[in-house]
Amino acid sequence: MENIDATVITTSLPAMARDLHQDPISLKMALTAYVVGLGIFIPICGWVSDRFGARNVFRTAIGIFMAGSLLCAVSFSLPTFVFARFLQGVGGAMMVPVGRLVIFRAVPKHDLVKAIGYLTMPALLGPVIGPPLGGAITAYLHWRWIFFINIPVSLLGIYLAGKYIDNERGGDAGRLDTLGFVLSALGSGLLMLGLAMIGEHQVSDTVVIGMCAVGALFVYAYWRHANRVEAPLLDFRLMRIPTFHASVVGGSLFRIGLGAVPFLLPLALQEGLHMDPFESGMITCASAFGAIFMKAIAQRVLARFGFRQVLIVNAGLAGLALASYGLFTHDTPVIVMLAVVAFGGFFPSLQFTCLNSIVYADIASEDASRATSLASVVQQLSLGLGVTISGMVLQASSRLAGHDQLEAGDFLPAFLVIGLFSLLSIPVTRRLPADAGTELARKH
């Protein structure tokens, strides 16, 4: 549901922008607001799950996501739509990390890669179904109907979670780091929203700079706070573990690049190449087929080459695939676009399987909640930062070219930048020992 929602929205952004009387690039605010909701509430998902139980938290999260979806459907202004997306982010903040915790606590480490694959496969249906579905609804009905898709799925999810998920708690939840929560929430929220507003005309430049500066100060204050207290909300001491450090830091750089694609590619196809939403959606969903195929062979690839070698080589291939999107023109055959986009899903899929598995390679069971919170918040903020950076580069490229409206050539610099971020993850993963994650990659 969460992946369908994200891909449906990105396919429909140009139509939404017209109805809300906004520039298409301005809709990056809605995508960023969702990530801000994730960034604020993911840090407490582990504590909340330990305190109230996985089933209760998971079902409540689905309900909040459903309420945000309804509000999106009836929004008639950008501020209302942005708030509705933020509310969806609050629900999404609890769904994926809590689901991952349930898997981690139930599955032996040598089966974790396979289990993560099972967890991911249904989610991969989102990028397959979402783009053509969102494109068809936008082209032939109205974009508001796309948010009603979440209602029956949410109700079914609430029922199934109640039937099949135990209300497991992770032992003594302890006291919530309230000061840490306030500092991290204000820091990540103000900084991400401030960055997303750069180049926009919603508020003055002075306010935008002030938001970024104050947000950065709160982030620094949290870092100082986390190093002083015994049980911080986001425990940066876990970064001393090599496999965890490589997954979080290297993964964040990789995700900055990949996070821009759902925003940038539909815009390039619709605004740059003048495709309709349905055509754009059919091409965009090719990446999901590449991702699904890679999931089927990921375990064998890791067993053959090991985590370190795969993370290094595959990051380079993924970066080249993503950057090549910027070469699409009106003369590029559709079959070539489909093949390139499929490769753009194939290589990142393997990278995510590695990163999402190796993050737990050396994490003790009692540290699982804290590790999940820290890894998840960095992952999501990185994805949001990708949207923000690509939007800024796209705006700058279009203005430097003197274009009143987006054209195909404006997208090349943005795709080159996101490809570069994937390559920047290589120096981080090169520091891993050659046998990193051996227990996870071993066949059983």
UniProtKB/TrEMBL annotation:
Q: What stretch or stretches form a coiled coil here?
A: none
A Pfam family in this protein?
Answer: MFS_1
Q: How does it sit in the membrane?
A: Multi-pass membrane protein
Q: Does the keyword Membrane apply?
A: yes
A cellular component term (GO) from this record? plasma membrane
> What stretches pass through the bilayer?
25-45, 57-76, 82-103, 115-133, 145-166, 178-198, 204-223, 244-269, 281-298, 310-328, 334-359, 371-391, 411-429
Q: Does the keyword Transport apply?
A: yes
Alphabetized GO MF terms: transmembrane transporter activity
- The protein in question is named MFS transporter
Organism of provenance: Pandoraea faecigallinarum
